[in-house]
Design brief:
12 strands, 6 helices, 26% strand, SH3 type barrels, five-stranded antiparallel β-sheet, 277 residues
């Protein structure tokens, strides 16, 4: 596995133009999980925008407790502490849209590195073609002094080659380098990611969700597909994904159980989705 140049604070800060995201950076050569460290920093009153960045993870996590493949020297593993002050109604929408907005900003950043169009699998997987190039993990916490916060975790497969993935991932995962044939500057990609994400978050807070929702739906490859949804309680449903609500939920229509039966409509706020066809 060929490693690229190590991540350095000087190289990141030299071009970073965000107002808050990444203004404080905790850079680690090796860490168990950037999300775990960011949660600890949030509980210790770390300021909004604090970024935990690692060159490798020993216990990287995806959704539903899955392991996130985190080899050293080739990818981006980043987690950001987010603090906002919102009323109850807007906070609920914010929490629902946070992984979707993050996926949208991350897609824009990946495309800036020369990759082909990045599509989104609801709620937070990033795909090039049918293969996963990145994922999002959002978690919430609170500190006694500064109150609630969220942590956005982002993993992007950047410079890995097909042979660098475990055999079980080679047909379902990809990297930007695999798709473009070119090595990607991780510093430049990270800076673009922070800038795009900050724009998305600020747009939600100042103008609402309308344009972001249009852009997410345009990129969402889940819509129109027959999917299997596995809920947190283990129940499974198969049906057609027909829409994304203003609350970020997925509208899923089940097939009628018998001829002449009525289709059941579900609004899914969280589920593990598999595209069937």
């Amino acid at each position: 596995m060929k490693h690229t140049s190590p991540l350095t604070l000087d190289e990141i800060e030299r071009t970073l133009a965000t107002r808050s995201l990444g203004r404080r950076i905790e850079l680690r050569d090796r860490i168990d999980s950037t999300n775990r460290e960011a949660m600890a920093l949030g509980q210790a009153d770390a300021e909004h925008g604090t970024l935990v960045l690692a060159d490798s993870q020993t216990a990287g996590r995806g959704r539903l407790g899955r392991e996130w493949f985190s080899p050293p020297g080739i990818n981006l593993y980043a987690s950001i502490v987010i603090r906002t002050t919102l009323d109850t109604q807007r906070l609920s929408q914010w929490l629902s849209w946070l992984p979707l907005m993050t996926a949208l900003g991350t897609a824009e950043a990946i495309e800036s590195a020369g990759a082909a169009r990045v599509s989104l699998k609801w709620p937070n997987d990033l795909l090039i073609g049918d293969r996963k190039v990145g994922g999002i993990l959002c978690e919430s916490g609170a500190s006694i002094r500064t109150g609630p916060f969220q942590v956005i975790g982002i993993g992007i497969n950047v410079n890995g080659e097909r042979a660098s993935f475990p055999r079980g991932l080679r047909d379902v995962a990809t990297s930007i380098r695999q798709e473009t044939g070119q090595e990607v500057d991780r510093h430049r990609l990270l800076v673009r990611l922070l800038e795009e994400l900050e724009l998305c978050l600020e747009e939600f807070l100042t103008r609402g969700i309308d344009r972001l929702a249009v852009e997410y739906r345009r990129r969402c490859t889940t819509l129109g597909k027959t999917v299997k949804a596995v809920l947190a309680d283990g129940n499974e449903y198969v049906g057609t994904a027909e829409g994304i609500g203003d609350d970020g939920s997925l509208t899923m229509v089940h097939e009628p159980p018998r001829p002449g039966g009525r289709s059941e409509v579900r609004q899914l706020r969280a589920a593990d989705i598999t595209h069937l066809r």
